[in-house]
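Render this sequence as a predicted structure.
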Amino acid sequence: MIRMSGVSMVYSNGSVALSDVTVGIKKGDFVFVVGPSGAGKSTFIKLLFREIAPTNGHLFVNGREVGEMPLSEVPYFRRQLGIVFQDYRLLPNKTVYDNIAFAMAVIEAPRREIQKRVDHVLDLVNLRDKARTYPTQLSGGEQQRVAIARAIVNNPVLVIADEPTGNLDPDTSWEIIRIFEHINRDGTTIVMATHDKTVVDTMKKRVIAFEKGRVARDQEKGAYGYEN
């Protein structure tokens, strides 16, 4: 699913974010990406959905070499992915239903299929009763559930989540994590960057830990291993 070989990332100001990183992630894996601030987690995540391209090395995602991909192909590549951010990034002038449906409309899915899939994911995240409300009328946890529903409505092969519980209280965080767990059980690969020590230590999934731009630890059934 993901193959990163000798990848380095140096920003234009000379800052070295990643240095000679080699990582492989198989289809169906659930992986936590951890490390202190500035360790390279966010850069690793951004590379996966081609927000940035590596300075050196090779990165393959679902069979495509992402670093060599022309910018014109990036939107089509991202249609295979579900991306969830800490700040939700919902469209404020659209209802919950329309925020989710928009992800299918851009790929010109039939209206009947859109309705079927949107209703399905709304049930999955337990928000069917909020379908006609707007993001500003929702709690933070509800907004994040909408963001997850939008990310998975097109049946992505890979869901990438960047600090998806960072703004949420512990109980709500666990609601979000259980949704990701359900998605993973259905076969979707999950890669999640997080600072949530309790979640990582409890879940006992694979942990890739970054320090100073390098992989310091890659551990099955791993633990967080850092002080928050």
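Summary. The mean pLDDT is 94. The two ends are 30 Å apart (CA to CA).
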